[in-house]
Amino acid sequence: MEKNFLLTLAFNGAAYHGFQVQQNALSVCTVLQNAMQKVLHARPDVKGCSRTDAGVHATEYCVSFKSDTAIPPHKLPLAFNSHLPKDIRVKSARQVPQGFHARYSASGKQYRYVFLSSSVDDPLAPGLYYRVAPGLNAAEMNKAGKLLVGKHNFASFMSAGSDIEDTVRTVHNLTVTPEGERVFVDIAADGFLYNMVRIIAGTLLKVGNGRLPATQVQAVLQAQNRAAAGETMPAKGLFLSKVFYPPSAFEE
C-alpha cells in the first residue's frame, strides 16, 4: 500500500526556474524527482507547498508524495541527497496521513527578504541577498512593517495584472531585524499575493533609505493600488523560511 510522505527541503534557487516543473527550463522539482526515481525506482507525483519564482531560495520548503517504498522515513534524506546536487538538500522526512497535502494542509507560510547594507558585496554569499547603500534604517522599517500586521486588503502589494479577486490576507507577524550589515525582513501570513513579499520589501526599503516616512505605509495599504507601493525587489534576496501546519493536519 502506498504511504504518504512529507519532505522538508532547503535549496539555493539561483540555478533554477522556481520549484514547479517547467517544460523548457530546469526546476527544483525536476531535479528532486530525478533523485527520487533513482532511489524509489519510480517517479512520484510531488506536491509542493508553494510556487516559487526563478531564483527564489528556501530554508524550509515542504513537499508531499506517495510511495510504496519500504525505506524507513528517517533514511530517505540520506538516500535522496546522495543523488542531489549540493544546492538542494532534503533536511527531513516523515510519514503523514493519506489526506495530507503539502500545500492545501498548510495554514500559513513565512518568508524572509535579505538586504545587505554595504558598499561592497559579500563574496561568501553571492546571490543570497540584495545589496543597498550603507545606512539602512532598520528601526524605521520595522515601525512601518508593524502597520501591515493584521487582516487587510493587500492589493497595493500585488503585481499589476494579477488575476486575483480576493486580495485580503492576514499578516500574523512582520519584523525587520538588523544583524551586522544584513537587514532581515520576516513576514508570516495565512497566504500571499503574487510578489507580495518582494513588493513589501521594496516599500520598506523606501522607508529605510528615507524616501518614504514610516507612517505613510498605512496610506500605501489603503490606496489598494500597485502604483502606490515600492518596487518589486529581485528574487535573489527572497527565502521561503517556514511552512505552518495545524496539528490536525497530522491526525488520521
Shape: globular
Q: Helicity level, as a percent range?
A: 10-25%
β-sheet strand percentage? 25-35%
Annotation, overall tally of beta strands:
10
- The number of helices is 5
Structural class: alpha+beta
Question: What's the average pLDDT?
Answer: 96
Contiguous runs where pLDDT drops below 50 for at least 5 residues: none
Query: What's the N-to-C terminus distance?
Result: 16 Å
Along the chain, the helix and strand elements come as: EHEEHEEEHEEEHHE
Give a quick account of the main beta sheet: strands, pairing sense, barrel closure. Answer: 10 strands, mixed
Radius of gyration: 19 Å
Q: What structural keywords apply?
A:
252 residues, alpha+beta
Description:
This protein is α+β, with helices and mostly antiparallel strands. 19% of the residues lie in helices and 30% in strands. The chain has five helices and ten strands; from the N terminus they run βαββαβββαβββααβ. The chain has helices spanning 28-40, 76-81, 138-146, 196-208, 217-223; strands at residues 3-11, 47-48, 57-67, 88-96, 108-117, 130-132, 150-153, 168-179, 182-189, 238-244. Strands 1, 2, 3, 4, 5, 6, 7, 8, 9 and 10 form a ten-stranded mixed β-sheet that branches. Strand 2 and strand 3 (57-67) form a beta hairpin. The two termini are 16 Å apart. The relative contact order is 0.18. The mean pLDDT is 96.
